[in-house]
Amino acid sequence: MRHPVLIALCLAGMASLSACGRGNSDAEVDRALKSVNVIDESNLNDIMLTVGSPDESVAYFRGASAKAPERVDLKRGLAKSLVRANRPSEAIAIWADVAASPGATNDDRVDYAEALIRANEWKRAEAELNRIPPTHETFQRYRLEAMVADSNKNWTKADSFYEIASGLTTKPSGVLNNWGYSKLTRGDAAGAERLFLEAITYDSKLFTSKNNLILARGAQRKYDMPVIQMTQTERAQLLYTLALTAVKQGDVTVGKGLMQEAVDTHPQYFEAAARSLETLDASVTN
């Protein structure tokens, strides 16, 4: 007769424990869901900054930041998105707010300086970079320092910063291209040629460096095409650049020959080169 009573007591105890366990379980589930939401939001923020279109990214972070104005990470995302969308003037105000916040980092100040440079605010950018301690040694920081030194025509400093920056990244093609262009504007065409060639070795698809290389060679009256990887269309365009360089330097006959080669090389009708060749022929005839 005692067995049914014992079973009933055990069942009651199990029910009680189950209720307590369910309460603890609910709290744990809530915490877990919050963690998942934070992870999901973080992933979404990263996606919007890297994969989403610039305008979509701006809209997303603007809306999120308006709902949580105390969140520095959302303001940071908005500022980066505005820069991606080629709206640096709008980004400046956001970056200034981020840089002044307690959670600001040296990377924030570097990004702030970049936005200022993109908005042609060179002096303000220089001042912002000067606020960053010298111990903060990053590729991005030195890339901007080199650009500021360039703008001030402080060539020694610029060369030093370009060299440091190129050594702090595994993808230095962009900074090498900028360094080469700096050398070209100073009249050091040979130095520029070496840097453009080095940039191409890191990124054989960087047409800007290929075109700049042709400009540097043309400035030295080197009118033969360099041995670099290029498509047929690129070769035609580079021949055209070289032809224009030759004509500007007074080597008209060489320029005409290069221009004709550009027209013949292009896989389609090369209108710009053909029109320039006709104009050149007419001017020589007259």
TrEMBL record:
Which keywords describe this protein according to UniProt?
Signal
Report the Pfam families cross-referenced here. Answer: TPR_16 (PF13432)
Origin, by domain of life?
Answer: Bacteria
Which SUPFAM superfamilies does UniProt cross-reference here? TPR-like
Q: Where is the signal peptide?
A: 1-21
Q: What is this protein called?
A: Tetratricopeptide repeat protein
Tell me the organism.
Cereibacter changlensis JA139
